[in-house]
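Mods, move this if it's the wrong board.
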Amino acid sequence: MNTRKRPVSLLVLVVMMIALAAFPISAGASHSWGGYHWARTSNPFTLKLGDNVSGLWDGMFVIASNDWSQSNVMDTTIVAGGTSAKSCRPTAGRVEVCNANYRNTGWLGVAQIWITGGTHITQGIVKNNDYYFGNSSYTYNNTAEMQHVICQEIGHTFGLDHQDESGISLNTCMDYYHNTSASDTQSTHPNAHDYQELGIIYAHLDSTTTIGSMPAEIANGDLSEPNAWGKLVSTSANGRESTYMRDFGKGNVVVTFVIWANE
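Not the wrong board. Structure tokens:
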């Protein structure tokens, strides 16, 4: 493993996706998330995933990393974590993956990415909330749903959106299916369309790289609480999904996708 790096709090644009959320898209459609991607000068490239997980998440993290490394354009490698699991602060040029009891926040997981130049990802975090995944009264407290969540949230940090949000299983972790038991292992891994979409997102090369680089400081602050998400712009008919937007000006926006854990 690489030498532990100190967390970086600087950000240009933060885009937060909380759990499994919000804009409808069909299975056959592109599921690039806003054109966001890591800038790099060659393919395949390797993205470091910081290990700040423990317990059952350890094995699930390895599975998710191996799954995403099946892509033809990118590999992921697990390295020593650069933050504490509780704070889960970002480190420039990589993704920090964490689990902790983040309390009764209403969300299962968070994928958060920092963007510069409108589309280039500079750093990211993934947070898995043990408050719900350690609660026996919660329907989706099982290892299959845990694998679904960590796989999907890591996928978001590459610039992938959901393939489908109707609730059916397309047998990809990037759909909106929920696993109700450990034996229900649908939608716990990427599928062929995810790899195809990564190929489309990363088909072009950039003149510079944001992998391992330091982002410029434009906006900073704690964006983990609902009062920091900005304006509510949409809510699903059943009230389970919401989308928020916070505009910092000069093209710097925070978009928060939420699925509420309350049953």
